[in-house]
Amino acid sequence: MNIENLIRKNIKQMKSYSSARDEFEDFEKEMIFLDANENPFENGVNRYPDPQQKSVKSILSKINNITEDQILLGNGSDEVLDLLFRAFCEPRQDNVITLPPTYGMYDVLANLNAIENREVILTKDFQPDLVQILEAVDQKTKIIFLCSPNNPTGNSFSDESIVTLLQKFKGLIVIDEAYIDFSDKESWLQELNDYPNLIITQTLSKAYGMAGIRLGILYASKEITSILNKIKPPYNVNVLTQLKAIERLKKNDSVKKEISVLKGNKELLFKQLLEVNFVVKIYESDANFILVKVDDASKRYKQLLEQGIVVRNRSNQTLCENCLRITIGTADENNKLLNTLKSLQNA
Ligand SMILES: *Cc1c(COP(=O)(O)O)cnc(C)c1O
């Protein structure tokens, strides 16, 4: 496994932009900063942010027992995923593999970067189809995206299938763990040191309740993070985002409490949905949403909208015919959803 061989040639050769704050980065000392053409009058955001987000990384490294140089932060997961394409996938030559039904951004980013996306549909029980995946791999396959727990199905992929892919595939394996905090399964973070081709992405958008600040996290070997660091926009995570993230990460207890409430709400909603007569199937979920098969998804979607409830119609995705994806809300919101669904039983 040689990461060096996977990097695009132009990326390997390029020099990164050296920002003022890269060249002098000691924030601790009382210095007079006349190097970045900032406005000197203090208002809280008049200075450029720390390009390496050291304070945020320091907390994340402690929470996850990982070194700071194994972390890369971005403007949402979408940015760190895009950086992966840019660093490793040669436009019009390389390809990636994704496993539909899954998160739509992988395909969007592949298209944006002119990279072929080889879609290998999940098995009927929403697991990776190992035979088909390994058959789809060729010399130009750079990345396989595994979303676990998967969006929109909600299930996690089996450990065996993930290990098999990590061992057999000679490119990069990205495990998107956007929903890992809702799962009883362990993150793959502690396996980072065992697999040089493993990349894990997480986000503050879901369990941490901070979709509005846009903070995506990538964990990988420092060999990989240093390449991504070289090409990322210098000030990609703004001052306000860093401050808010630090505040929230320090209150880990309240995050845990919210997660536990949402997991309880999910168990309850799961049971209650079984009582709705047009619900055909409810899929087990390790995430903060449930995929529900109904008699007629478009019809039920519209009926819910008319009653002021917005869910996601996933019907047009492979294997998701007549499926709605329902995010777990507060107890009150879930009750309203359930009462509305029951009132529609004869409609
Ligand atoms: C919501 C979600 C994300 C989060 O994206 P952000 O850009 O960090 O908000 C990432 N991956 C999956 C699968 C998601 O569902």
Automatic annotation (TrEMBL):
Highest taxon listed in the record's lineage: Bacteria
Keyword flag Transferase: yes
Alphabetized UniProt keyword annotations: Amino-acid biosynthesis, Aminotransferase, Histidine biosynthesis, Pyridoxal phosphate, Transferase
First-level EC class: transferase
Residues bearing the modification N6-(pyridoxal phosphate)lysine: 206
Catalytic activity: L-histidinol phosphate + 2-oxoglutarate = 3-(imidazol-4-yl)-2-oxopropyl phosphate + L-glutamate
InterPro entries the UniProt entry points to: Aminotrans_II_pyridoxalP_BS (IPR001917), Aminotransferase_I/II_large (IPR004839), HisP_aminotrans (IPR005861), PyrdxlP-dep_Trfase (IPR015424), PyrdxlP-dep_Trfase_major (IPR015421), PyrdxlP-dep_Trfase_small (IPR015422)
Cofactor section: pyridoxal 5'-phosphate
EC number(s) given by UniProt: 2.6.1.9
Subunit structure: Homodimer.
UniProt similarity note: Belongs to the class-II pyridoxal-phosphate-dependent aminotransferase family. Histidinol-phosphate aminotransferase subfamily.
Full protein name: Histidinol-phosphate aminotransferase
Organism: Flavobacterium hankyongi
